[in-house]
Amino acid sequence: MPPLRLLPLLFLLAACETPDMGETGRTVENALRASVFLPPRQDGLTPIRRALPAGSIQDVDEVEATDGPTLLVTYGSQRKVMSLIQGTGEQRMWRSDDGTVIATDGARVVATAGTQTSLAATRFDSPDPLDDVTTLVERPAAARRVVDLVPANRDIDRMRFGVPLECRLRAVRVEEGLYVEERCGGGARFVNRYWADPETGAVWRSEQWVGMDNRPLVIEVVSSPSN
Q1: What are the angstrom distances between the C-alpha of 157 and each of 151, 161, 215?
Q2: pTM score
């Protein structure tokens, strides 16, 4: 897979009040099957069942007023509604009113701009196991990817390029659907979590690591591109 050179475009979009859709369409594509997960128990994959916290999709008035594909994204204490600004196939780009941008490929966040540490690029050595979530129930999978990380202040001393990540993914069927856990090591240690439809494997909520500060990016699909 060729390197994703997304950072310059993402910073350009983040700085603009109105993105240039023609330029965006020529330069980048990304996608989402989207995302829900809850913290796993210490002794296994089964997530702790609980109601969605206050301020989730049902309680955000501005989400109901949006048109078209929409995500609700939480990063630390910030909650943002993000709209689809460009998409081709499984690759899509989303933008909030304040200029934060995320690029997705399937359920995977592959680049960000406007977060504390920007995920500048993601490169896989092999197909992403998230492309077929349902097979992870019977056959856990391993995947290796390399990422580039750039702090918000552009501090050259803190930029990290070619960070290797070795990850293991597995899934279980629970009452709510499929629960997927991705444990990663190598250049960084973290756990990503996903909830998906048990039949289609479409992820409808996720919690994903996007950089050095270890704050997960939480994505909830309000309205998917297929709707």
Answers
A1: 10, 11, 21
A2: 0.73
